[in-house]
Amino acid sequence: MKNNQAGKQKSAAREYTEAIVIALILALFIRTFIVQAFKIPSGSMLETLLIGDHILVSKFIYGIKNPFSGSVLIPIKSPKRGDIVVFKYPKDPKLDYIKRVVATAGDTVEIKDKKVFINGASPKDHYGEFRDTNIL
């Protein structure tokens, strides 16, 4: 009788361990390939995203990437104006930047009097204006 009870206890402990391991593997897979949560750290996206806001980012909207090199294996679509994107800061790849796309390949971007002009025209959305005193 004792032997049978010990076998059941080991079985329950093993089931819990297996469930935890499977949950961890599934969470790692989802975070690596499907979706990742981010917290907005600064006010650079104010009026759209507030400091402390949490967002979920689809990791394959623009294509399926190699998680180790970051290279696109299967492209799906290109970013377009107005999209909010997350990318690695080139000078410090450990740092994620969350920004809005204001121009795409081939566009000409100018900043005059704290206003952004894309291909000579001012965008209608408020994200084309700067309130930063460092921008002329």
TrEMBL record:
Its EC number is 3.4.21.89. The active site is at residues 44, 99. Keywords: Hydrolase, Protease. Signal peptide: none annotated. Transmembrane segments: none annotated. Its main location: membrane. CDD domains: S26_SPase_I. One of its GO terms (molecular function) is signal peptidase activity. One of its GO terms (biological process) is signal peptide processing. SUPFAM superfamilies: LexA/Signal peptidase (SSF51306). It comes from the Bacteria. It is a single-pass type II membrane protein. It catalyses: Cleavage of hydrophobic, N-terminal signal or leader sequences from secreted and periplasmic proteins. It is found in: Membrane. GO terms for cellular component: membrane. InterPro entries: LexA/Signal_pep-like_sf, Pept_S26A_signal_pept_1, Peptidase_S26. Residues 14-125 form the Peptidase S26 domain. It holds the Pfam family Peptidase_S26. Belongs to the peptidase S26 family. NCBIfam families: sigpep_I_bact. This is Signal peptidase I.
